[in-house]
Write a structure and sequence with these properties.
The complex is a heterodimer of chains A (135) and B (56).
Chain A: H1 2-10, H2 14-23, H3 27-31, H4 35-54, H5 71-80, H6 84-92, H7 105-130
Chain B: H1 2-22, H2 26-53
Helix pairs in contact in B: 1-2
Classes of the chains: A mainly alpha (135), B mainly alpha (56).
Amino acid sequence: MTSEVARTNAAPQPWLVGAISWAVPGMGHVWLGRSTRGLFIGGTVILMFLSGLWLGGHLHGLHNTPEIGMLAYVYGFCNLGLGLIYLVCLFANVGLADQAALATAEYGNIFLIVAGLLNYLSMLDAFDIAAGRKA
Amino acid sequence: MRHFLLMAAFAALVAVAFGSIGRETTRASVVYGLKIFAEFIAIGLALAWVLYLIPL
């Protein structure tokens, strides 16, 4: 009984695991002892983010824009899934410039959006594992 | 060709992510990831032809 209580108390809170997983892609899984899974998903998210920037995509802020209006909120929410990377880029003004002249710019935007969405998925997966809903 | 390569790169990255999350064992993850990759490519090519043939 005491060891069960101790083990339960030692297990991280699911919401905290999810938050860590959002902030640093893959870190939630690493914290739970699923290092391989964490490195794969975190590496994929980061690689997709870097590819998106390299292709000429740009991050969207959490505000509407004259070009796409309210849809920018959706894109901004998707980019927010990148966690601290997104916040650092926002404050450092990195990756925000629209490079529509590049032929691959729209691909880059999609890569950036999906990278954020994949990290949301990773965050939910880490939460489920920490909550015991998943092995 | 560039479009296809970019689509393949996108499919590969998403397949790795889905394979990592969707299955528990390494073998099951690899098989699932390859299946996801193949489906992305197949559906992408099918949609490309459909959109190409639709007169607009």
